[in-house]
């Protein structure tokens, strides 16, 4: 964080060009939460690396780097991809279980 604060933040952060996301945090059992490396850095825990694009797209939207339409387009395509994979697995004899709440 010292390197970031002295070398990067002074040049770029004021112009909103630099963002950090900590993607592989240690789990803090006492707090039952993720242990961030700094309160200034967004921390996300991912079980599967394939899942990285969804939270990153939400982060881009939340930071104002993408509009709602871009997020909706990404989520729509991600759902279509998931459905295609599920259909392929079902066709191969793999049982797919869909939980619907509501």
Report on this structure:
The chain is mainly α. The chain has 3 helices and 4 strands. The chain has helices at 2-8, 53-62, 68-91, and strands spanning 21-22, 26-28, 33-35, 42-43. It has one domain (20-91). The chain is flat and about 45 Å long. It starts with a helix and ends in an 11-residue tail after the last helix. The chain is 40% helix and 10% strand. α2 (53-62) runs antiparallel to α3.
The best one-word shape is flat
What's the helix-strand series?
HEEEEHH
Q: Output the radius of gyration.
A: 18 Å
What's the helix count?
3
**Whole-number tally of structural domains:** 1
Structural class: mainly alpha
On the 0-100 scale, what is the average pLDDT?
75
- Beta-strand residue percentage: 5-15%
Largest sheet: 2 strands, parallel
Oligomer: single chain
Low-confidence stretches: none
Would you kindly provide a brief summary of this structure?
This protein is mostly helical.
């Amino acid at each position: 964080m010292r390197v970031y604060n002295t070398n990067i933040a002074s040049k770029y952060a004021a112009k909103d060009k630099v963002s950090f996301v900590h993607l592989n945090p240690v789990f803090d059992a006492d707090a039952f939460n993720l242990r961030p490396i700094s309160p200034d850095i967004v921390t996300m825990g991912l079980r599967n690396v394939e899942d990285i694009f969804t939270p990153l797209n939400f982060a881009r939207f939340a930071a104002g780097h993408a509009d709602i339409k871009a997020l909706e387009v990404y989520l729509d395509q991600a759902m279509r991809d998931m459905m295609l994979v599920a259909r392929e697995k079902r066709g191969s004899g793999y049982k797919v279980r869909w939980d619907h709440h509501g």
